[in-house]
Design brief:
mainly alpha
Length: about 130
Protein backbone atom coordinates (compact mmCIF):
# COMPACT_ATOMS: atom_id res chain seq x y z
CA UNK A 1 0.00 0.00 0.00
CA UNK A 2 2.78 2.44 0.89
CA UNK A 3 4.74 1.50 -2.23
CA UNK A 4 1.68 2.00 -4.44
CA UNK A 5 0.99 5.39 -2.82
CA UNK A 6 4.61 6.42 -3.30
CA UNK A 7 4.48 5.52 -6.99
CA UNK A 8 1.29 7.55 -7.32
CA UNK A 9 2.80 10.64 -5.64
CA UNK A 10 6.01 10.41 -7.66
CA UNK A 11 4.00 9.99 -10.86
CA UNK A 12 2.23 13.29 -10.19
CA UNK A 13 5.54 14.96 -9.33
CA UNK A 14 6.91 13.70 -12.65
CA UNK A 15 3.94 15.15 -14.50
CA UNK A 16 4.40 18.51 -12.77
CA UNK A 17 8.13 18.58 -13.57
CA UNK A 18 7.40 17.51 -17.15
CA UNK A 19 4.90 20.33 -17.62
CA UNK A 20 7.39 22.82 -16.15
CA UNK A 21 9.90 21.42 -18.65
CA UNK A 22 7.71 22.65 -21.49
CA UNK A 23 8.67 26.19 -20.47
CA UNK A 24 12.24 25.66 -19.22
CA UNK A 25 14.71 24.82 -21.99
CA UNK A 26 17.11 22.59 -20.03
CA UNK A 27 14.41 20.61 -18.23
CA UNK A 28 13.24 17.88 -20.57
CA UNK A 29 9.54 17.06 -20.70
CA UNK A 30 9.44 13.64 -22.33
CA UNK A 31 11.52 11.67 -19.78
CA UNK A 32 9.33 12.91 -16.93
CA UNK A 33 6.13 12.06 -18.80
CA UNK A 34 7.51 8.59 -19.55
CA UNK A 35 8.46 8.16 -15.90
CA UNK A 36 4.95 9.23 -14.86
CA UNK A 37 3.45 6.63 -17.21
CA UNK A 38 5.65 3.92 -15.68
CA UNK A 39 4.81 4.98 -12.12
CA UNK A 40 1.09 5.19 -12.85
CA UNK A 41 1.25 1.70 -14.37
CA UNK A 42 2.45 0.51 -10.95
CA UNK A 43 -0.02 2.52 -8.87
CA UNK A 44 -3.22 3.44 -10.72
CA UNK A 45 -4.67 1.76 -13.80
CA UNK A 46 -7.16 4.61 -14.15
CA UNK A 47 -4.46 7.32 -14.19
CA UNK A 48 -2.21 5.27 -16.48
CA UNK A 49 -5.10 4.89 -18.93
CA UNK A 50 -5.84 8.62 -18.67
CA UNK A 51 -2.22 9.43 -19.44
CA UNK A 52 -1.81 7.08 -22.41
CA UNK A 53 -5.12 8.24 -23.90
CA UNK A 54 -4.32 11.93 -23.35
CA UNK A 55 -4.61 13.89 -26.59
CA UNK A 56 -1.09 15.35 -26.43
CA UNK A 57 0.87 13.12 -24.05
CA UNK A 58 -0.52 9.73 -25.05
CA UNK A 59 1.14 9.43 -28.48
CA UNK A 60 4.54 10.28 -26.98
CA UNK A 61 4.19 7.51 -24.41
CA UNK A 62 2.85 4.92 -26.85
CA UNK A 63 5.59 5.63 -29.41
CA UNK A 64 8.23 5.29 -26.72
CA UNK A 65 6.79 2.20 -25.01
CA UNK A 66 6.20 0.29 -28.22
CA UNK A 67 9.04 1.49 -30.44
CA UNK A 68 11.54 3.61 -28.46
CA UNK A 69 10.69 6.40 -30.91
CA UNK A 70 10.50 10.18 -30.66
CA UNK A 71 8.65 11.92 -33.49
CA UNK A 72 10.62 14.10 -35.87
CA UNK A 73 8.34 17.01 -34.99
CA UNK A 74 9.16 16.59 -31.27
CA UNK A 75 12.88 16.43 -32.06
CA UNK A 76 12.79 19.67 -34.05
CA UNK A 77 10.54 21.41 -31.55
CA UNK A 78 12.79 20.56 -28.63
CA UNK A 79 15.99 21.49 -30.47
CA UNK A 80 14.68 24.83 -31.73
CA UNK A 81 13.09 25.76 -28.40
CA UNK A 82 16.33 24.99 -26.57
CA UNK A 83 18.30 27.15 -28.98
CA UNK A 84 15.83 30.03 -28.88
CA UNK A 85 15.36 30.05 -25.12
CA UNK A 86 19.03 29.63 -24.21
CA UNK A 87 20.81 31.79 -26.78
CA UNK A 88 19.99 35.16 -25.23
CA UNK A 89 21.02 34.23 -21.66
CA UNK A 90 24.20 32.59 -22.95
CA UNK A 91 25.18 35.67 -24.92
CA UNK A 92 24.00 38.49 -22.67
CA UNK A 93 23.18 37.31 -19.14
CA UNK A 94 25.59 34.57 -18.06
CA UNK A 95 29.09 35.96 -17.62
CA UNK A 96 30.80 32.80 -16.42
CA UNK A 97 32.44 30.77 -19.15
CA UNK A 98 32.15 27.68 -16.92
CA UNK A 99 28.38 28.08 -16.53
CA UNK A 100 28.04 28.73 -20.27
CA UNK A 101 30.04 25.56 -21.00
CA UNK A 102 27.88 23.52 -18.59
CA UNK A 103 24.67 24.80 -20.20
CA UNK A 104 25.99 24.04 -23.69
CA UNK A 105 27.09 20.55 -22.61
CA UNK A 106 23.64 19.80 -21.18
CA UNK A 107 21.97 21.03 -24.36
CA UNK A 108 24.27 18.93 -26.50
CA UNK A 109 23.73 15.85 -24.33
CA UNK A 110 19.95 16.20 -24.43
CA UNK A 111 19.99 16.75 -28.19
CA UNK A 112 22.34 13.83 -28.73
CA UNK A 113 19.97 11.56 -26.84
CA UNK A 114 16.92 12.89 -28.70
CA UNK A 115 18.43 12.68 -32.17
CA UNK A 116 19.83 9.16 -31.68
CA UNK A 117 16.34 7.74 -31.02
CA UNK A 118 14.29 6.41 -33.94
CA UNK A 119 12.13 9.08 -35.56
CA UNK A 120 9.10 7.13 -36.53
CA UNK A 121 7.22 4.09 -35.49
CA UNK A 122 8.66 0.80 -36.61
CA UNK A 123 6.12 -0.89 -38.86
CA UNK A 124 4.67 -4.07 -37.47
CA UNK A 125 5.08 -6.95 -39.90
CA UNK A 126 1.78 -8.33 -41.09
CA UNK A 127 1.07 -12.02 -40.78
CA UNK A 128 -0.44 -13.61 -43.83
Amino acid sequence: MIRKSSYFVFAWLSIIIGVIGIFLPLLPTTPFILLAAFLFSKSSVRMHNWLITHKYLGPIIIDWEQHGAISLKAKWTSTISMLVLVTYPLLFVIDSIIIQAIVICFMLAVNLFIWTRPSKRTPVSQKT
